[in-house]
Model the fold of this input.
Amino acid sequence: MTCRTFGERLDDLLEGRLSPADRRAADEHLRSCAGCRELKSLVAEASVPVTPPADLLGAVLARTSGSACGSARARLCDHIDRLLAPADDDLVRMHLDTCGECAGLAARLARLAADLPPLAERDPGPRLVDEVLARTSRRPALPSRRAARFAAVWRRLAHRPRIAWEGAYVGSIIMVVLFGAANAPFADVPGRALVVVRAVQESLPADAARGEVPRIRLAVLSRWNAARALTSNLERRSSAAWDGLKKELGTVWGRFASGKATSGTNRTADTNEADRGDER
Amino acid sequence: MLLDDATLLERCRQGDDLAWEALVRRFQGRVYSVACHYMRNAEEARDVAQEVFVRIYERLEAFHGDQAFLPWVLRLSRNICIDTLRRQKARPRATEADVDPTAQLASPARTPEEASAARSARDLLYRAMDRMSDADREILMLKEIQGLKVEEIALLLKVPTGTVKSRCNRARLDLAERVRRLDPSYGA
Done:
């Protein structure tokens, strides 16, 4: 057996996996080769497990990357929430196996994850529902409330002193935009309306127009008379109502005045009587 | 069988008073919890919770069915709390939460011993959170307590999702450390 073959089969020799013939050949080679004997004793020592010094890892990290606790804590919440990728999760787990402080922190975070969600609700007491219902159930239905809200907003707007100015301003702008500007959509409407009126006037025969005038006058007069009759009727009714009201008021005032006079007389009489008693 | 939120909302929109009552009952604990978190005063929290529900009632039509109802409610609650706090700005805030931390809904504890342990754990957490910064407490409340998604919180706080994640992790570690100082046996 050569030194190279011995080196290749050294592991098998140490772990007892060589065949008897190969083992005999290896023993013969060891007897004749001092270098291979030394190699065998070195490998045999190294394969015995030895506990490293407790501070070795810390010392190495201190001289290289620094403590890994910061990186572990940065991933600790995701580790608790199971949001880490498997490789990162394994790394955090290995760190927690060796770092008591981070393991304690992880345990507290896990407990917090269980204890915090139940705080989502608190009992406001039995009155809250009744109070809310009292404030909401008497309100009108939603559509009418919307209309009421719109009306309230409009009322508030309309009651401002500057509403007239704003209305005039907006109206002017609309008029200018619709009719006034050169490229306005209805810029030619007034001119066209005048043309139409003139065309109708010119197309109407003069005799026909003269014949229509008395008929129109008669119609207007009849409407006027009807309106006057209605207003005079209303006037008559209201004056009658006013007279009745005055009469009623007079009666009530008369009763009130006579009652006051009577009580005044009685009070005077009582006072005189009392004065007389004092004198006595 | 419990009606789901969408059905309840639809019935509320149709003017069903019973559905509205059920909706208030379902979300009152959540809304009150958020209000307690911000207001840190039981009476004010109840007033704010009332206001939140009145506002929800007024805005039922404005709520779109394509978004989740709970985040919408929590967002509304948070906004109303912050508005109320702004209005009260002149008044100094209490340093201690005067909300009864033991007042909870539906405790999962089955025996008196479990209930007592749960109460003491809650008390410990409230005391620890009470000493945290407002920003950390808020992010813990939104994500870890109310269970909102990172994207929803990012939308609510108008910050990137990465910021939400990192702030939340930092707040959790901070809370774990504060809890350890108050009770070294917690989580052991």
Remarks:
- Chain B has two domains: 1-95, 112-188.
